Amino acid sequence: MRATKRNKLEAAGWRVGDAADLLDLSPEETAFVALKLALADHLRKIRTQHRWTQSAVAKRLDSSQSRVAKMEAADPSVSIDLLVRALLTLGASRKDVGRVIASHAA
Questions:
Q1: pTM across the whole model
Q2: Assuming Cys at both sites, which of 52, 75, 90, 99 could form a disulfide with 70, CB separation 3.0 to 4.6 Å?
Q3: Dist CA 57 CA 76 (whole Å)
Q4: 17 within a domain of the structure (yes/no)
Q5: Distance separating alpha carbons of residues 68 and 100, to the nearest angstrom
Q6: What is the CATH number of the domain that holds 67?
């Protein structure tokens, strides 16, 4: 957000913050959410690079298309463990997964 817009909002009595402020997340919770989103984005990246549909990925993972959609959206019902296993099953190396994790470490 531009500083001028932020200043106008604050002058009008608004409080400006981010999602972590709104949800009152601790730094650890914020890092966890960022990590989960990064893994989900990497899953989507692998799928699109191979030009696979969500249904094709679901078959590879022995899952459903809707579950893959939830994985790519980092749905709360999806664990980091599931995202990592899916990435490895789709051909990501441990090094690739490690890079994603390292790039979003606090």
A1: 0.78
A2: 75
A3: 20
A4: no
A5: 19
A6: 1.10.260.40
